[in-house]
Design brief:
CATH class of the largest domain: Alpha Beta
Number of helices: 12
Largest sheet: 10 strands, mixed
Shape: globular
Radius of gyration: 21 Å
CATH superfamily of the largest domain: Alkaline Phosphatase, subunit A
Strand content: 15-25%
CATH architecture of the largest domain: 3-Layer(aba) Sandwich
């Protein structure tokens, strides 16, 4: 039987107004109380600072975030995002431990040749349809094992995935006040232990917005970094005041790079008449059209490389899903690539001043951040750059959940654990 959904306010009013709009209310799924075996377990608060490049904390003197490295663990030279290094695929990779080609969210927008439908990050119908999403996100894993969870925004959290939803979640609202997001996290942690979520996500887009609009090396991006740093400082302080055993993990999904040049339109190099397209993703309607476009594109420009999907380099982990398109375009630099310009010139705008989505091994500024602190985290631990698919098993270990097999390994992050497993981690 499908769980009943209700709306509720917890400890404070969630129906405030901002610029004339109501804040999204918390949605509650009636899963019942925490199982007795889960109540005494520790807590994890996972925070994403979208677009926070690996070097921003030092570059812009984010003192609260840097303090997390001293009290806990960090990856000073960054965390490696999955390809493509964009928001939805990487957020969903972090909470499933799967590469985008395995969990299915391969881009912000894409076409599925089997379903003959498009998925788009800004289409409520697709974002909330769990049939698009593979894997078992951490909140679904927790709920399956009788542990309550809560999501203050996270790609995928508004859909029923693997038969579950988080006990508490909100519909995404970009303008939701930053400080009130923290208020809600603290309110959740103030619930009676039977109702209290042990796994909580929190999301901030500020740095990504600034990086896109102004570029990564600008006063505006510096100010956005310092603003979210202040929020992390406030969150840390308030988490400490709960006196609960909470492990705080702060990550980002990708970095940011200053873009070069204007739009590169693929249809100026190849006949895309018999193609479905989504951004720079190409879906030929038959083999003849696909091969013809590949031949036309493969030596068309030094700004991108072109592969038949089956031959995309293995390091990208981007050659197994039809959703990735064929042929596959891989930029060689911070270039803005699309299949077509808009049919209406009035709707055509220049590229953002900052962007991402590129191969992090070729463009290091795509690297993200990883910081963790709390009772289960080794103080002062430093990690070499690692792929973000490994976070899933790390958080499952902190929560003592029975994680399924994924593309990541707990052993990669064992050095961050105060008490690593007695037996070698898989």
């Amino acid at each position: 039987m499908r769980c009943r959904i209700v709306l509720f306010c917890v400890f404070f009013v969630t129906f405030g107004t901002l610029f004339g709009q109501e804040n999204s209310p918390v949605i509650t799924i009636q899963h019942g109380p925490n199982a007795p075996s889960q109540i005494q377990k520790h807590y994890v608060v996972l925070v994403s600072l979208d677009g926070f490049r690996y070097d921003y904390a030092k570059k812009y003197e984010a003192r609260h975030i840097l303090a997390l490295a001293k009290s806990g663990a960090s990856a000073p030279d960054g965390m490696i995002p999955s390809y493509p290094s964009v928001t939805f695929p990487n957020h969903y990779t972090i909470v499933t431990g799967l590469y985008p080609e395995h969990h299915g969210i391969v881009a912000m927008s894409f076409y599925d040749p089997v379903r003959k439908q498009k998925y788009a990050y800004n289409d409520v119908a697709t974002v909330t349809d769990g049939s698009w999403y593979g894997g078992t996100p951490l909140w679904s894993l927790a709920e399956k094992e009788g542990m309550r969870s809560a999501c203050f925004f996270w790609p995928g959290s508004e859909a029923e995935i693997a038969g579950e939803r988080p006990t508490y979640y909100l519909k995404y609202q970009d303008a939701y006040p930053d400080e009130k997001r923290i208020d809600q996290v603290i309110a959740w942690l103030g619930l009676p232990e039977e109702q209290r979520p042990h796994f909580i996500t929190l999301y901030y887009p500020n740095v990504d917005h600034a990086g896109h609009k102004f570029g990564p090396d600008t006063p505006e991006t510096r100010d956005a970094v310092r603003h979210v740093d202040m929020l992390i400082g406030e969150l840390s302080q308030r988490l400490n005041k709960t006196h609960l055993p909470i492990d705080l993990i702060v990550v980002s999904d990708h970095g940011m790079e200053a873009t070069k040049g204007g739009w590169i339109n693929l249809d100026t190099f190849a006949d895309l008449t018999n193609f479905e397209t989504a951004g720079a993703l190409l879906y030929g309607k038959d083999e003849a059209a696909t091969e013809k476009a590949y031949q036309q594109l493969k030596s068309a420009s030094g700004d991108f490389k072109v592969y038949r999907r089956a031959h995309v380099p293995a390091l990208l982990d981007y050659n197994q899903s039809a959703r990735e398109g064929d042929p596959v375009i891989v930029p060689t630099g911070p270039f803005s690539i699309r299949a077509h310009a808009p049919s209406d010139p009035a709707k055509d705008y220049p590229p953002n001043k900052g962007s991402h989505g590129y191969d992090p091994r070729e463009m290091p500024d795509m690297k993200a951040i990883f910081y963790a602190t709390g009772p289960d985290i080794k103080k002062g631990a430093t990690l070499r750059p690692f792929e973000n698919v490994n976070i899933y098993s790390f958080i499952a270990e902190l929560l003592q959940l029975d994680a399924p097999a994924t593309d990541g390994k707990l052993s990669v992050l064992e050095g961050a654990l105060k008490n690593p497993p007695a037996e070698p981690a898989p």
